[in-house]
Amino acid sequence: MSASTPPSRWLKFVLRGIVVLAILAGLGWGGRWMWKQISPGLFGNKREEKIPTARVKPASISEEIVAVGRLRAVFSTELRAEINGRIMKIFAADGDGVKRDQEILKLDQQDILTQLQESDRNIEASKLRLQKARREFERQQDLKNRGLVTPKDFEETRIALALAENDAAVYEARAANLRDKLTKTIIRAPHDGTLLLRDLTEGQLVTSAASQNGGTLLGEVADLTALMVRTNINEIDVARLKVADAARVRVDSLRNMMLNGEIKRIATIANESVGDRTRVFPVDVVVDETDPRLRPGMSATVMFTLAHVEDVPSVPLSAVFSNADSVRYVFLRNGEGFEVRGIDIGIADTRRVQVLSGLAAGDEVTLMRPLEYTGEIPIAKPAVPPKPRGKRAGT
Predict the structure, then answer these.
(1) Which sign does the torsion angle of CA 272, 273, 275, 276 carry?
(2) Is the entire prediction scored with pTM above 0.90?
(3) Distance of alpha carbon 107 from alpha carbon 80, whole angstroms
(4) What is the pLDDT of residues 333-360, one digit of tens each?
């Protein structure tokens, strides 16, 4: 007898399907209704109501060039060995105050002393040979005067004397060179200052400054009573700076410290930046003040103030737009909508820009482009002639 599915099971299956379809249909209708309610506020004709705006208001603005660099002593001298050698003794420690000609470290002298001892013996031997050659020459000269020696024998004697004199001079020169090398095994302070010694150990090998890589840098002697920051300024901004311009220096590790400085040097030739291969000019800014917490090598931020204005009409930077003709304009609120208004601007900082003409105090401008304005906007420059763009700092 074959089994058959009871009618009640088929009825339950159909009812469950109808319920699932009804739920899905309800979710779809509810989602569509909710989308219709919120989409106009996000994308539709309500976008203009959501555009952020700002009003023209007075502000103080400083146009600045900001660069980074490192602290260093205005007057310092690097310490490098003039000969290859091994460090035998270190007499001073990093941070010590040193005087001119004070011994800092000594290289191994044994090899030079051995060569110098050999050279001294060669000098003594050459002196004896020279005395012998001179006596023989004097004897031959006496015989020549009496006609008892041939010209050939006399000439050989004269040559022997000249060679002996030459050998003696060569040995003397070698000894002088060795004595000079011996003095170079002592590294001394070139002038008064603070010793900034590298991490050196006794027994370490060092190469001379004449080697291909410039030799081992042992440290430097620096005058820490006068510090400066060397920074690099790109070729566009460097033309706006000049020697004696004021600057402000903030040491990154001492956030609450702001130092005054002055440009002492602007390089006349550019270097190529390693990162983006742009042309930059080294600029030295001497710091007016000193502090015991300041150390050479600290990172610093340098700010050059190019111009400064007080209480001038201004708008946020994001409110100003520009077209292909470099004409600046804003979107000015006009009733319920917006209109394009050309403006002339002055100096700007990182937040606001000075408005010279085209807007009045209290005018409301957008911080983004309204929806109805798309593509390039043709607009003429303002007819009002521009006013002075601010006073240069320090004038």
Answers:
(1) negative
(2) no
(3) 12
(4) 998 889 999 999 999 998 999 999 999 9
